Amino acid sequence: MQLFKSIRKTLLTTVSALFISGVLQAQDPIGDIVESTGVGQIVRNNENFGPDVGGDIFLYDEAETVNGRMKIEFLDEEELDLIEHTVVYIDEVYYDPNPDLSKMSLRMVQGTARFASGKGARIKKANIDISTPTAQIAINGTDFTTTIDELGRTLVILLPDETGGSSGEIKVFNDGGETLLNLPYQATMVSSMESPPTRNVIINNITPSMIDNMFIVNPPQEVKQAIEDQVAEDQNEDSGILDVDFLEFNELEQDDLEDTMEEDFSELDIDLLDVDFLTDLLDVVEALDKKIKGSGSSGGGATIGNWQVEGAVQGFNKDSQFNVFEQDGDLYLFRNVNGTIEIIIAAGGTGFLDVRVEGYEGMIEFGGGDPNIQIFINQTN
After folding, report:
1. Beta strands in 95-135 (DSSP E)
2. What residues are paired with 140 via a beta bridge?
3. Does the pLDDT value for residue 264 go beyond 70?
4. How far apart are CA 37 and CA 348, in angstroms?
5. Measuring CA to CA, how many Å separate 362 from each of 208, 355, 370?
6. Candidates 2.60.120.1440, 3.40.50.720, 3.40.1550.10, 1.20.272.10; CATH matching 12-234
7. Which among 200, 232, 242, 279 is most buried, taking Cβ atoms within 10 Å?
């Protein structure tokens, strides 16, 4: 039996079927790399190629950056900028002599990418389709960014043109609804394919160069408020006497609260916004948690489903910033600070996780008994 199922540093969306139509053949270049810094790669037919400036881009290519950046220019002068830790799939590009028949489809999978539609006339802008794991984007113009976390949640920001005015408009939509962005730095957040985009907000005091992956874990205040408003609206729609939050009464016993949390917490409850990249603040929180045992701290042990765990509790652990929960009998440990750590232990596994990362050092033991799984993670300098 495979007890240790997986450990991943980066989560990727499953690749869907790709297709091509029209005159342009798969072996014909559709663009090239015009800028490249740091570490990245182009994945083509399961082979990895360095993102060299001047290198050709083909259909079905997967553009990835690690600790680097990349800029791709397509044949009709569309520009695609990728910052660090970003993944984009090129699904379809078809240039027809009639621009109304031309088409482009790109999938923004993870990280932060900027797309600017071309100034040429080989493709009708309405025929450019951009998608993310939780939304579709139809453009008319346009210059915009997408920032996507490992769970697919997407922040979309419309950028201004050279004069500071609107660069066009984009429609952000999914199964839950749609919204139209048509003002500079207007933004919306989409959490899942079923939930509608948040109300539009204008983000103040930013420039395009300031938009990066930090916006998904620490969104601008305007976006945070829009998310809170959406959550409040959903709660009001579903509210009733059965929805009274008894957790606000201090008289309830701690054990009863923990039992309720264990029943409810799953992968869907992981809040990637509840992390902090400022290590000095993490040190303060860790020191306080060591002084005050319990109350969500991983200072002691806990029963999580059928698992006995020492050094962590169900849900989000403030000191280690690991989300810990059981799903389908397996134990999940998920952390998203300065990189993503996801570990899945199959039912029956016993052992420990020894973690030394920026802002936290500690051990999480699971399963009890003799350890047959030993995991060491060291990200400290």
Report:
1. 103-116, 128-131
2. 169
3. no
4. 45
5. 38, 6, 19
6. 2.60.120.1440
7. 200
